[in-house]
Design a protein that fits this description.
Shape: elongated
CATH architecture: 3-Layer(aba) Sandwich
Strand order of the largest sheet: 1-4-5-6
CATH topology: Trna Endonuclease, Chain: A, domain 1
Structural class: alpha+beta
Oligomer: single chain
Helix content: 25-40%
Strand content: 15-25%
Largest sheet: 4 strands, mixed
Order of helices and strands: HEEEEEHEH
Number of strands: 6
Number of helices: 3
Distance between the termini: 40 Å
Length: about 120
């Protein structure tokens, strides 16, 4: 599966998931806003940040990095995902949409269990 297919499937899955409050496509890169004779390079986005970003209904951050089959995140992308996970957010990378579904559902169950243990569930 091409990365663009994984990306569109992941965006559709998260957009329609009831636990996901919002999700958006995150672009990172540089663009010449000047001319060939007088280039003016503008950077946008945070280096290493994921393809998809979002927020769960309970306020946790979502970061999803999609890859073509067999590809891996860059060190900057892996570091970004590690930071999101360490802060309690959902962080995933891969090329298998079924893997994303399993990982997100597992994350939701862990969050619900934690809320029950802490007495925060309604």
């Amino acid at each position: 599966m091409r990365e663009s297919q994984v990306l569109s499937g992941a965006l559709r899955f998260l957009t329609l998931h009831p636990y996901c409050a919002m999700v958006w496509r995150n672009n990172v890169g540089r663009s010449n806003m000047g001319t060939a004779e007088h280039p003016r390079w503008v950077s946008f986005g945070i280096a290493g940040s994921s393809d998809l970003l979002g927020i769960t209904r309970s306020g946790q951050f979502i970061a999803v990095e999609t890859k073509a089959l067999g590809k891996k995140p860059t060190p900057a992308q892996a570091d970004f995902l590690d930071q999101i996970a360490a802060a309690g957010g959902f962080a995933w990378w891969g090329w298998d949409l079924e893997g994303l579904v399993r990982a997100f559902d597992s994350y939701i169950e862990r969050q619900r269990h934690a809320q029950l243990v802490l007495g925060l569930a309604s």
